[in-house]
Amino acid sequence: MEFKQLHPWQVDFGRAVEIQKELAERVMLRDKLPPPKLSRIAGADVSFSRGDSVMYAAVVVLDAATLETIDEALAVVAVDFPYIPGLLSFREGPALLEAFRKLRTKPDVIIFDGQGIAHPRGLGLASHMGLVLDTPTIGCAKKILLGVHGELEIERGARTPLYHEGSTVGAALRTKRNVKPVYVSQGHMVSLDTSLSIVLDTCGGYRIPEPTRRAHLTVNRLRKSSVQDQ
Question: pLDDT of 176-206, one tens digit each?
Fold first, then answer.
């Protein structure tokens, strides 16, 4: 899978913030999905061991109708950027892009275990990767980074907007009855309504959508096997 080289990844804090502000202006918040329906949905996740010098990444592509795995790619990349909240895409991005580079099947949309526009500068991991990959992306996080929301009913499918400074930046979505919600925000080239529908449709009985759940399981197996081989 090809992607764009929009900027260098080895930059300092100040330049990273500038890049985020510049790229946020290019994020598209309307649907640009392939007609007439989705056929391939990917999930992406990263993993690392505390104190380790490498980052592990996995991308898993699922058949949209059956949720069967049709492709996957893995990567192990040296960590060159420190952990700084709000700048995680600079730490995790290079490993994820290496995994995407190895992917043989181009997905129609990608779900990331992270934020989209629900981010202090409007450019979380999903939005950043969407621009670089030039592919529709969705952020589906387990915790709020930015914004507040009202009460949420306990039934599966319940949702309520996530607001920040008077603007809607995402939504809290209940994917399983009486279980903590996930926080969905647009990444790039997807509307919020479509993002919510895709996340809910791909939750096969678990709290998190199956594409990112499978990527999470895959990348943790990679990390554990790599640590054992050392």
Answer: 999 999 999 999 999 999 999 999 999 988 9
Q: Mean pLDDT lowest for which of 31-40, 47-56, 189-198? A: 47-56
- Of 174, 173, 175, 125, the C-alpha closest to 145 is 125
Task: Specify burial of residue 3 (Cβ count, 10 A radius: 0-12, 13-18, 19+).
Answer: middle
Residue by residue, DSSP assigns 120-171 as TTS--HHHHHHHHHTS-EEEEESS-SS-B-----SSTT-EEEEEETTEEEEE
Place of tokens 């979505």: 173
pTM for the whole structure: 0.95
Helices (H) and strands (E) in the chain, counts: 5, 8
User: How far is it between the farthest Cα atoms of the chain?
Assistant: 51
- Report the pLDDT averaged over residues 145-153: 94
